Amino acid sequence: MDLTLVAQGLLSGLLFGGVTSLMAVGLTLIFGVMRVVNFAHGDMMVWGMYLAWMLSSRAGIDPYLGFVVCAAALFVLGLGVQRGLVDRILDAPHEMQILLMLGVALVLENAALVAFGPEPARVRSSLTLPPLWLGPLFVDVARLITFVIAIALTVLLGLFLFRTAFGRRIRAAADNPYGALVVGTDVRRVYAVAFGIGAACVGAAGALVAPILPFQPTTGLGLSVASFNIVIIGGMGSLLGAFLGGLIVSIAESLGAVFLAPSMKELVSFGLLIVILLFRPAGLFGKRAA
After folding, report:
1. CA distances from 103 to 86, 88, 100, 149 (A)
2. Is the full-model pTM beyond 0.90?
3. Fewer C-beta neighbours within 10 Å, C or N terminus of the chain?
4. Which residues pair with 140 in a beta bridge?
5. What pairs with residue 139 in β-bridges?
6. 119 Cβ contact partners less than 8 Å away, ≥ 6 residues apart
């Protein structure tokens, strides 16, 4: 095996891992705060991709700048979904929550299909420059920019959750909703904002990855499955687990494409998922049940 090829796989996987981490952080934030599994997560990301495409093709806004608009739009969408739908079934059985979010996913997918058609799309960016060469290795500039922005957004989210008053309210509502309510926290408002932030994360991730990967309305299912894989490996509800899980899964798939074949790269990440479930069901950074 060519060691240069292996090193290239490690580098490419690491750079792409930034955006997969951001995608998973949004999902695990929603689950960690409300214990609701957002099955529409991937379809929200697809809408982030299409918003980036519209901003680029119709307004001439580069996706590496337009991701802010995409994140804001998905925040509003997430806020609306939580206020209008999820808030009504928070105390309902989990199967009702699952059916609701599956319904939202189908609505988003079919709305995208009607609006944009079934053909694959891809966003053009002026920043997708020729690769940078570091000796025998090359650095994809688009992936490097995506990695830097995704890491910066993840760090900012962490600072917001752990260094601000509202972030502390979110963590308090996640740990003990009744206790947070007793001390005067508007738990319903906290839930809505947390869901909106989770959707904003995936909206930004969609815009950042749109110049790298082609997409279409049906892409959402694969993105949701990948997100679940990452957060289960990292530990459901753990932001650190989602962040590191995204890097681990991206590197594993990149190396899988090197050692096996590009079409079999997911075999490695799902094999890793099986191993984690066998030996540490709570995930690498998840809390074991009492």
Report:
1. 12, 15, 5, 32
2. yes
3. C
4. none
5. 132
6. 216
Domain ranges of the chain: 3-152+197-279
Q: Are 195 and 34 in contact (CB under 8 A)?
A: yes
φ, ψ of residue 216 in degrees (nearest 5): -155, 170
Q: What is the pLDDT of residues 189-229, one digit of tens each?
A: 999 999 999 999 999 999 999 998 899 999 999 999 999 99
Amino acid at 89: I
Let me know: does 141 contact 131? Beta carbons within 8 Å. yes
CA distance linking residue 61 with residue 80, whole number of Å: 26
| Each residue's pLDDT tens digit, 277-289 | 899 888 888 776 4
